[in-house]
Amino acid sequence: MLPPLYLLLLLPLLLLPPSSPLSPPVPRRAFLAPRFLAALPLATLLPLPSPALPNQVSPPPSVAEARAQFQAASKTLDTLLSDYPSISAKGGDEIRRYLGTVGTSSPLFGFPRLVRALQDSASDPIEFTEASSDFLRLLSAADGQAYSSMFVEFSAAKGTTQDYYGRALEEIEGMKTYMVLMEKEL
After folding, report:
1. Which of 1, 20, 117, 173 is most deeply packed, by most CB within 10 A?
2. Share of the chain above pLDDT 90, in %
3. In Å, what is the CA distance from 65 to each residue of 62, 106, 107, 171, 183?
4. 3-state SS of the chain?
5. Nearest C-alpha neighbor of 167 from the set 154, 153, 179, 149
6. Which residues have C-beta within 8 Å of that of residue 183, sequence separation ≥ 6?
7. The pTM of the whole model exceeds 0.70
8. Angle 63-82/161-185 helices, nearest 10 degrees?
9. Using 50, 70 and 90 to split pLDDT, how confident is the model at 145?
10. In the prediction, which pLDDT does 3 show?
């Protein structure tokens, strides 16, 4: 159902004479121009939409908040590894949910921002940054494998869903290795 103000925009279309199917075709500009000009004054009466999100960026997390989220992310990764068969049985999106690439509930969601907040407080910022870069690379690869697993049955790709789950698991195990390296630097 259209709101009443938008119905007013349709009013000029009703007031203009209809064209006959036997009349010669009307050029597009000749057809649209009078209708547009007639609807323009009514369009100024419509309320302007408000932006969905204001142009405000949330502040970066404090070091204490980032450390707490880092610990939660490490536990989430442990849970994903220990319960991988039951999690992967629910599909690729469930794996991605744990990885923080589907939804916002996983502590791994927004991990690059978390890394930036922690890198200056690391005992060796360079080691921490290198480990985090490798971690994020593996996170992206695991996400890609889990995502691809959802479409392998219907594509020309070779392999099965289980093959993609296995590759995602390898990437996640690598992520845990780099998570431990980052934890040593904190």
Report:
1. 117
2. 38
3. 5, 15, 11, 27, 15
4. CCCHHHHHHHHHHHHCCCCCCCCCCCCHHHHHHHHHHHHHHHHCCCCCCCCCCCCCCCCCCCHHHHHHHHHHHHHHHHHHHHCHHHHHCCCHHHHHHHHCCCCCCCCCCCHHHHHHHHHHHCCCHHHHHHHHHHHHHHHHHHHHHHHHHCCHHHCCCCCCHHHHHHHHHHHHHHHHHHHHHHHHHC
5. 149
6. 70, 74
7. no
8. 140
9. very high
10. 53
Structural tokens at position 150: 């959802």
Cα–Cα distance, 173 to 75 (Å, whole number): 13
Structural tokens at position 153: 């049955």
50 burial type by CB count under 10 A (0-12 exposed, 13-18 middle, 19+ buried): exposed
155 vs 129, higher pLDDT: 129
Q: Provide the token pair at 167.
A: 């590759």
Residue 102: pLDDT above 80? Answer: yes
